[in-house]
């Protein structure tokens, strides 16, 4: 269980990740602000508290694995990997450039990235394969898969959703970033999938609902999932797309939007205000 000092530390890390996010997007360049920012707290909990990782040895056999199935949110994962020391900070200035290491979606050339993602619906299948391979090697490392809510309309995802419980893989924990907005508008208007929790429960998953911006609630759900045996767990994160940036919150325009000078300055000011309150 997290103590108060742990919670404050992780809140500060989530804020730092959002600062890195704004630095990577910059001015006049499209970037996935909305769906990256909605995951800041979850990424902070996983990389800076829960997961076994080694930045000095990214392919360390005993590491836990994280697959960002909603690969368009790669910038928030890059921020965490940078802060952990997987690659030099200068790379944040070269995102999506021919000379840069960090591209628009995760790539295996990037230290700390476990899978190429972004073609939605495939991450859970990849996670299942990794978890089964770890089982064959008699390793109990955890596998975490983060999906989007818009991604729930993909067929392959639901094939994997049936397969994971079939193989009784309890070392895999999946997440849905339920921010309710996809690229072109509200998810319910694009492809409505009601009763997400009940659907996953019917497929054999242990389901947890949490406030996806509550550090303590996320950590408690992750720890509870680790205690579940004989079935996989799903954590549905109730989040706000573009969280902490007032102009982007719940705004589909910032799924992959461009910041002008004024919006960039506003974003920095809003983060500074949050920092003063921590």
**The named CATH superfamily:** Thiamin diphosphate (ThDP)-binding fold, Pyr/PP domains
What is the name of the CATH class?
Answer: Alpha Beta
Q: Please name the CATH topology.
A: Rossmann fold
Distance between the termini: 20 Å
- Total of domains: 1
Low-pLDDT stretches are: none
Beta-strand fraction estimate: 5-15%
**What average pLDDT do the residues reach?**
97
Strand order of the largest sheet: 2-3-4-8-7
Helix content: 40-55%
Which term fits the overall shape? Answer: globular
The counted number of beta strands is 9
Structural class computed from helices and strand pairing:
alpha/beta
User: Helix-strand pattern, N to C?
Assistant: HEHHEHHEHEEEHHEHEEH
Largest sheet: 5 strands, parallel
Number of continuous helical runs: 10
Please identify, by name, the CATH architecture.
Answer: 3-Layer(aba) Sandwich
How would you explain this protein's 3D organization?
This protein is α/β, with parallel strands linked by helices and 278 residues long. It has one domain: Thiamin diphosphate (ThDP)-binding fold, Pyr/PP domains (Rossmann fold, 3-Layer(aba) Sandwich), CATH 3.40.50.970. Helix content is 42%, strand content 13%. It has ten helices and nine strands. The protein has helices at 4-25, 33-37, 40-50, 74-84, 123-136, 155-166, 187-191, 196-202, 215-227, 261-277; strands at residues 30-31, 65-68, 143-148, 172-178, 181-182, 185-186, 206-211, 233-238, 257-258. Helix 1 (4-25) crosses helix 3 (40-50) and helix 1 packs antiparallel against helix 10. The longest helix has 22 residues, at 4-25.
